[in-house]
Design brief:
With about 450 residues, this protein is mostly helical. About 70% of the residues lie in helices and about 0% in strands. α3 packs antiparallel against α11 and α4 runs parallel beside α11. The protein is globular.
């Protein structure tokens, strides 16, 4: 039992004790509405906006095509996030602990490691870069010191843990929402729908949809990390609904504003935040730069926390009651150096990362949802921490589905899948293919194993 959680309670200025242990009922607190702003604030940031920007500038979408693609992609990502979040109040454990049901205790090390690296290094670096550019534009400080300032604040919040993150997102929510909505309205008054030439066709549409899904579903492996402290009396539907709603509206609004801004003639400037804010009046431009910094901190506090949480499920032990916090700091430091490197060409790095992040999440979701369906009505809580528990069909389905979908459907500058080479209009549907491949294979292997068990 996680007895340390009993003394943690709802304290904000305190380091969250323990690691991935279940949260006892007596330590639960909060309400489902907290998940609305917890998943809104992290997406009120420039990285969200830039998905819409690249949909028009790089993927060849008209404004209306871009809007349709991001709405579909975000809806799918938010729906899956809500379904996963809903299990938090009843199970009281992090998402990557629940993932052990699908892949086994040691098999789960594979997706847990991927999540730790993608979140604690990849996403952390991506969002830190946007925050650093904003500080650089706002203050004139060199880029590296700007990056350092942003990273230190993010690590401090992530190290303190769950309650500090919820509190920070709550108070950041109204500030970010007001600024983003006002800026969005101003940007739309300058929009020139005819400025988006289009020409990307169905391939560009699917790549945009995939980028939006990859961004939004990128939060899926974090889902119950932020709902596991809710009282057991809280409805899973309420928790999942609030999380999905916050995620969907924030990502969709930001991406649509980004697509609109891309229809306006942009200055020849390597700083992407300046390309956006140059269209705003002086005072509003500075205010939005502050919001970009606040948004990057909101996002990365969540990223580095969940990366640390996932790392604890791998099984590497550090100092008792600090393993989650120490892991968060470790990944934050690694993310800082990756962000430093990415400062040279942020746009190209971000475009590739958005697509690649979805490559493993699609297959992971496929196995997790099929496993959740197959275990309905059964008791399984005793399997979460059983080191002898295995589920090799889940791991095999995940690996095969990931590899097969990449080899067939990946559409990257350095590698194109075999089917994409033959049918380039497919765009990049790796995430959908991976989901279907892994889900179907896991369902088939599980049915075969059940038949074998009955026969024996």
């Amino acid at each position: 039992m996680n007895t340390a959680a009993l003394t943690y309670g709802d304290k904000v200025i305190a380091v969250e004790p323990g690691g991935n242990e279940p949260i006892p009922p007596d330590a639960r607190h909060g309400g489902p509405m907290s998940l609305f702003w917890t998943w809104t604030s992290p997406n009120m940031e420039f990285a969200t906006i830039y998905v819409g920007v690249i949909a028009v500038l790089f993927f060849g979408q008209t404004l209306w095509q871009a809007i349709a693609a991001v709405l579909i992609g975000n809806a799918l990502g938010a729906l899956s996030h809500g379904l996963l979040t809903a299990r938090g109040p009843s199970l009281g454990v992090p998402q990557m602990i629940i993932s052990r049901l699908s892949f086994g205790y040691f098999g789960n090390i594979v997706p847990a490691t991927l999540m730790s690296v993608m979140s604690g290094v990849g996403w952390f670096a991506t969002n830190s870069v946007s925050g650093a550019f904003a500080v650089n534009t706002l203050t004139g400080l060199p880029k590296v010191p700007s990056l350092l300032i942003v990273v230190v604040v993010q690590l401090a919040i992530g190290f303190l843990g769950h309650n500090m993150i919820h509190a920070f997102e709550k108070y950041a929510f109204p500030v970010l929402t007001v600024i983003f909505v006002v800026v969005g309205i101003v940007m739309f008054t300058k929009t020139d729908p005819g400025g988006a030439a289009g020409g990307g066709g169905i391939g560009g549409f699917l790549i945009t949809l995939g980028a939006a899904f990859g961004y939004t579903a990128g939060w899926n492996p974090y889902a119950t990390d932020y709902s596991r402290y809710l009282p057991t009396t809280v409805s899973g539907w309420a928790a999942g609904g609030c999380a999905a709603a916050g995620l969907f509206w924030s990502t969709s609004f930001g991406m649509i504003v980004g697509a609109a801004s891309a229809t306006i003639a942009n200055p020849d400037d390597a700083n992407p935040t300046h390309q956006f804010t140059v269209h705003l009046p002086g005072a509003m431009s500075d205010l939005f730069l502050i919001a970009i910094v606040l948004g990057s901190i909101s996002a990365n506090a969540v990223n580095v926390y969940s990366a640390g949480m996932a790392f604890t499920t791998i099984g590497i032990k550090t100092k008792k009651n600090l393993e989650r916090g120490l892991a968060a700091v470790l990944f934050g430091v690694l993310g800082f150096f990756v962000a430093w490197w990415a400062l040279r060409d942020a746009a190209a790095s971000y475009e590739a990362f958005l697509l690649i992040i979805a490559y493993w999440i699609g297959p992971w979701l496929g196995v997790v949802f099929v496993d959740q369906y197959l275990r309905r009505g059964t008791a399984f809580a005793d399997l979460f921490y059983r080191r002898t528990f295995t589920n090799w069909p889940g791991l095999a389905s995940f690996v095969i589905g990931t590899v097969a979908s990449i080899l067939l459907f990946s559409n990257q500058a350095k590698f194109s899948g075999y089917l994409v080479r033959e049918f380039p209009d497919l765009g990049d549907i790796t995430f959908f293919a991976g989901f279907v491949f892994s889900a179907g294979l896991y369902a088939a292997l599980s049915a075969r194993r059940r038949r074998a068990t009955v026969a024996s």
